[in-house]
Amino acid sequence: MPNERVLVVDDEQPIRRFLRVALTSQAYTVIEVGLGQEALSIVASQKPDIIILDLGLPDMDGIEVTRLLREWTKIPIIILSVRGSERDKIAALDAGADDYLIKPFGVGELLARLRVAIRRSLQKGNEPIFANSNLIVDLSKRLVTISGQEVQLTPNEYDLLRVLVNDAGKVLTHRHLLRAVWGAEYGDESHMLHVNISNLRRKIESDPSRPQLIITEPGVGYRLKTE
Amino acid sequence: MEQIRKISKTLVVNWKGYIFGLGLTVLCTLIGRLLILFFAPANVIMVFLLCVTVTAIFWGLGPSIFVSVLSVLAFDFFLVPPYFTFAVADTQYIFTFTVLLLVGIVISYLTAKIQEQTKESKQQERETAILYSLSRNLNVTAGLDDTLKTITRGIHETFGCNTLILLSDSLNSEKFISQRENQSFTIDEGELKSAVLSIQNQETTGQKPDMLQYKKARYVPLKTSRGMIGIMVLQSLDTPKDWTAEQTRLLKVFAGLAAVAIEHIQLAEKAKNAQILEATEKLQTALLNSISHDLRTPLVSVIGVLSSLQEKDISLDDEAKRNLIQVAREEAERLNHLITNLLDVSRVESGTIKMSRQLFDVQDLVGTALEQMGGRARTHQININVPIELPLVFVDFGLIVQTLVNVLDNAQKYSPADSPIDIKARQTGHEVYIEIADHGVGIPSQDLLHVFDKFYRIQRPDNVAGTGLGLSICKGIVEAHDGKITAENRTGGGTVIRLVLPVSDPSKSAEEKADA
Lengths: 227, 516
Prior knowledge:
Chain A has two domains: 5-122, Response regulator (Rossmann fold), CATH 3.40.50; 129-224, Winged helix-like DNA-binding domain superfamily/Winged helix DNA-binding domain (Arc Repressor Mutant, subunit A), CATH 1.10.10.
């Protein structure tokens, strides 16, 4: 059971209450604050393991909080917000947030994202081997297998998968993926990304129209599922 | 008085007519000299009467009277013995002279009068034609701007003036409506202000406001039975000339017609606005009724479940608890979905949806829609047929996913559990068709066209919950993409909803670049 300390930043009492119940039941230690300024000072003084951050805080915007934190710490940040537009999501992720959940959300989903984010933050370097269901990616050998069968990927498909594996569990924006695989000058050529994602899914997903490994974050980007 | 002034004016002006009359009299005298050899002098007089009539026809009253007098003198001098003197041998000729003079004057007067009348009726005919054409043009105008343009054009054609029409609501705020055709119009602001003031003064003091003629322009009040509705400013294209009385009168009639037309349009627009307002209010009431019912229904279940879990006296086994919680969860999700739809409806309607269109894979769209439906999609078997070679579609990902979720939601709600739902995509020309077909109850054929209308719900006995918003949002979204959405019944039962979405420029095929 985990024993990480979670900082919950939200000005809504009822939400903080139910988050406390849900998180303590999973043996997390919960610190609650209602303001962005409080959050900034508590992160500095108490060094929690992860932050659950609301965007609509009374004193400052959550994206600004994220930006200020990212100037000095890599602490994982999960955004919780009623703002569901793609623009807001991309802004938060670009500011350095690790994940983004839209309110209302299921506690199960939140706990899963929390586990992934904490695990990622604890990893020292990149693991050479990624495994989920039948898929095994061995970056050191440049080998991709499904149920033990080697999968033939084009260079771009492999690079794409490698970038996803390196940040497995994290939402990677279209622009981030394009830059990482094709280079900075391809930042807007998103159709290349979508075509390669489809091709990749056809090769590694058991049902490409209901993907279980490469998850679409609508209008934002893609995420490789880790569990 | 005016008649006399007019006559005296024509008497002076027609100097050409006098010369013509003089010449004609000389000619008649020569002819008379010949005729006197064969006829009695009384018959020769006829020649002079002819001469008077001709002059009257061509030159009007003055010259013809002049010719009458001249004829008498010439007749006396040349044709009545003793010749070449005004002395008369036979006194009966005094009578002849008098009658000749009187007849000449009467003929002159009558002929001139007839001429005058002909001229007037011609003028009237022209005016009638102008006014008729104006009122006909005003009848077919669409909207105030069009009416003002028609008036401006009419004045331009008839009076050769540029026109500016100031309506009374803009008079007060000193904002002036100017027509596009009058870019050359230069307003003398000081003159305009004083004209407007003086016309307004006339109106408030109970006088009938009248046309004003200033240095640079004419100011014509637009009056109707309800009062003054504006002012027309006319500026001559060339150097301003004095207007004839007819022109002034015609302009006033013109202004009257224009005023009535403008008022008519203004009243019609007011009525239309009132109608729109009423329709909006009706819609809002319907929306409020529908929403308050639909928002409360899920809450009934949620509160019911939670209160039964809280109640100490109710003992529930784990299975029952799980069931209850499942119900509450599903209802809460439904509420969330409803709120999303309501927000979208207002965004689609207010046009604030900001689309960010890119090329996306249809398979990804469908997969994400199913993912978002979560548990709701699990009641049915879903068959997906998206060909690998299908091109990407140029859409806003989130909005099209939302459309698919709404359509799939309906398919799921209106078809029996465990019946399959088929999602098929294919390319036709530069478009991609996505068809979602269920094996449900279908849509009555008279409702097929209306299912995309807002708040339209098919009356069914089974009473499935819904607001009638889902498909109208879909329509709004798809049409914003220059696409189409249609509903039809499937042979063998069920509904097919078809989305037609544009494929972007095929020359920029992404397939080619995929491994570039």
